[in-house]
Every structure is written in structure tokens, then in C-alpha cells.
Predict the 3D structure of the following.
Amino acid sequence: MIRLAALVALLLVAAPAHAQQDLDTAMQRVARMWERGDVRGITQSAASAGFALELESGRSGPVASRQAAAALRRLFEDQQTVSVKPGVARVSGGRPQRAFGELEWITRPRGTTIPERRTVFVALVREEQGWRVTEIRVMP
């Protein structure tokens, strides 16, 4: 009986740790795609219900992948990425599991030399295929 209780306790501790590790991996993948301006990869990472966008042009969503791709292309065309680093990522719970993370995006508007620092907020939901993007917000 004690062994069973210990096993259950171990599983309860390991499950959140595994979800966090998967989330960290997902955020690193999103960071790499963001750094490359990989619009296709980002839109393919969307949750089955699509994802919402909040860019300089305003908030929309959830949007179809074509609309998201067009908006992200415009965003990346106007900016030259200097670097992208994944920041805080946390599982927030729920059913299905939800999470959020941040990217630090250092960019320069095309034609300038002055870098700007932005935070990209990424909300995710855990689906069968793993963590999927439900929202992207680019904060000034």
C-alpha cells in the first residue's frame, strides 16, 4: 500500500515536470521560427481552433492560417531581427492544459540602425500533437 502511494505521488510530481519540459522545448522551437521569420512554421504551430494575433495593426482572431500568415509576413518585412531569446514559460493548468511564454525580440525597423526591444507573448494549449499556439501578442 505504501509503495502504491509513493508511485502515485511520484507520478503527480513527474507529470507537471514533463509538461514544463515539453513547454520549454516548444517555446525554443517558436523562438527559432520567430528569429528566422518562418511564417509557415509559426502558422503550422497553431492550435486546431486557430490563433489570435495582436500586432501593431490591432487585435484579431482567432484567424485562419492565411490571414495569420499575411499579418506575420507584413510584421517581419518591416523589421530586421537582431536576436530572439525565449524567456519565462509557465504551465497555467486547466483542461486542456494551457500555458504561456515570452520571447525577447531585439529588432531594427528596416533602414535604421537603432535596435528596439519587444516582448512577444505566446499563449499555448496542449493538444494531441503537443503544445500548440493559441495567441501571439507583440508588445512594444
Summary: The two ends are 55 Å apart (CA to CA). The chain has one domain: 2-139. The chain has a mean pLDDT of 85. The helical segments are 2-36, 39-44, 65-78.
